[in-house]
Design brief:
Two copies of one chain form a homodimer. By secondary structure, the first copy, chain A, is α+β, with helices and mostly antiparallel strands. The first copy, chain A, is built from six helices and six strands, in the order βαααββαβαβαβ. Chain A has a five-stranded mixed sheet, with helices on both faces. At the A-B interface, helix 1, helix 3, strand 3, helix 4 and strand 4 of A face helix 1, helix 3, strand 3, helix 4 and strand 4 of B.
């Protein structure tokens, strides 16, 4: 049994991009959707800069990383979205949740989600939301155990 | 049969907030979720200012309005979200879609969604997404006719 060491959390910097894209690609759907090359396609750096440009301290749009022994072992995108509906409620939105296949079974996904919820609460969000592909049945059970409810249809349209 | 006049579209200003909240409350779910009083609760103004603070020209988080004869007859929140997944794809997200019950049958909802898609394309988005409550079956058929696919579960957790 491998020894487990402490997990810490921090926001991603530009230098973390290759590790993040490696994680995004380490997934049944991600392996066809991502392009993990060396060097990385410029599109990822441009997207990171665009995320930075729309981030403020109060309303971040950032990647949150789970780090173990200086390795990035998990990530998710956390976006705080101000809006008018429900009496002007602030929402937190999660996207791109990944845990390295090398560290499964250590509840790193759960710890990452829980940490993102703590951040969201501290920023004043009263709702956390995300969409998950209907074919990811195991993921749905995982999220329902954490307290999420599949109350909505997640509708998408590609524009290209 | 009432005569119909041209629909124009523009982004909301702070002065439009009472009309927008009236629309948000003019809805089966919205009537219990919103607080349409005169004056409006400060929370709506604070939320509008927060939306402004995270909007850039390239990546807006704004309410788009449908206007007919100087009346605001429809609205939706349009948020452009930069992210790393799917090769750094830019997403557009819709929320709070409402059409005044006084102008139903003029395809104003369809025109509003179509206009928001045009804006999203022009800003470089390659995906438009939103979540819709599973009980809103008529809305699902409407969105599927427009080309959206209910491919995802929309998961939510309240934090209060």
């Amino acid at each position: 049994m491998p020894t487990t060491t402490e997990i810490t959390f921090r926001y991603a910097t530009r230098e973390d991009l290759p590790s993040i894209v490696a994680l995004l690609a380490d997934d049944e759907k991600g392996k066809t959707r991502e392009e993990f090359t060396d060097p990385l396609p410029d599109a990822y750096y441009q997207a990171f800069d665009a995320m930075q440009s729309q981030s403020t301290e109060a309303l971040p749009n950032k990647y949150l990383l789970a780090v173990q022994d200086a390795d990035i072992v998990g990530c998710l995108q956390l976006t705080l979205i101000a809006g008018l509906s429900r009496r002007g409620q602030l929402r937190a939105q999660i996207e791109g949740v990944r845990v390295s296949s090398k560290v499964r079974g250590q509840k790193i996904g759960e710890k990452l989600i829980t940490h993102s919820i703590s951040i969201s609460k501290s920023l004043g969000a009263v709702l956390v939301q995300f969409t998950t592909d209907k074919t990811r049945k195991d993921a749905h059970r995982f999220y329902e155990r954490l307290g999420f409810e599949a109350s909505h249809e997640g509708m998408k349209m590609r524009l290209d």
